[in-house]
Amino acid sequence: MLGLLVGGAVLSNAFRLAAQNSFDAALASDMDGLIAAAEPDPGGGVMLQSRFLNHNFTRVYSGLYDQIRSGATGGQISRSLFDHEIVPVNQVRQGALTWGEADGPEGQDLRVVSRRVDLTPGQASGDYTFLVAGDMAEVERQTDEFNVTLIWSFALLGLGLIAAILLQVRIGLLPLRRVSEALARIRDGKARRLDGHFPTEIEPLATELNSLIQHSEEVVGRARTHVSNLAHFLKTPLSVLAAEADAEPGPLAQSVKRQVFSMRRQVDHYLSRARAAGSLDVLGNRTQVCAVMDDLARVIGRIHAPRGIVIDAECADHIHFRGERQDLEEMLGNLIDNGCKWARTRVRVRCETGAGRLVLTVEDDGPGLSAEQRTQVGERGERLDETVPGSGLGLAIVRDISKLYGGFFLLDASPMGGVLARLELPVIV
After folding, report:
1. Are residues 241 and 373 in the same domain?
2. Between helices 371-378 and 394-404, what is the axis angle to 10°?
């Protein structure tokens, strides 16, 4: 656009100069005709032969004027000037001609050319100054008309250029837009790799991105394997210590058993956190919630079948969790198992979506908890009843993993009489 503006200004100035040069050429031609028509008058003046003159010299205020000055007679004024006289200013000499400007009749801006001519060589009275002036209004009119045409032409050209640029950018960046959409699908878990055919210029980028995604998966996989191996190596000595403590009853054995139990809880806790944190770095994780919920309901239902606990699970098939299946099983399994431990006869599990979030609720018909107790269990991870089996870390693990995924977990009162556990996570619909 800046180029169009500068180009338009240059063209407008060039046209004005061309129009003025043409106007000056016409004035010079009229000057030649005026000189050719001039003949000395026996009375000391100048006679003009009309056959050589421009007819506009004879019309009053026609816009074309002539004026002849003589040092002896004081001057002669043409009929077109009537009672006015031309007084040139800002004169510049170019060869035999002198160019300048002047104010004409009726506020006209005049372009003036003058030339000294000796009509009677050898006589002092034969030296005259011939002057021709023309109204610059015609030049201004032509320039204005050209500028209007120039503005419309450049406006259309500018719009055409903008349209062409937009079209070029849209078509030219289409492969990059496809890469962006493919990366969005990977981030949302709808794909594992950049699929499709890309232009030669984009193909190296797609290949490197696929290599980076694969490398990320391999690094996370190795890290998770190391964490699992570390947990296994720790659990074996802990199991040995627990067995030795059981074989030798006493205060020392009880103390060892308590410490071993605490260490096992910490190992399980941080193992779950490390596994969940590692899975966040892997692009393309996608887990169907319905399948996980049905599997957990079936397995946990069998565990609590002797107590007659019924698990009512409901979830749509199209809902997917933006994360790994193992992490979803860890969170949802702990909530369902915790509900079954406290329920009298029934646990209800529901899955809903809204505003880009996955909402999982687990309710039981157990005795329930007060607001203070729910705070102790949900936020502080405290155990309220040591007689119920378990490590007491289930809800703490749910809370930690949900935070890693950008979700949250809370406990509330259930209409069924027990506790309602609400878990919100990212979702893919």
Report:
1. no
2. 70
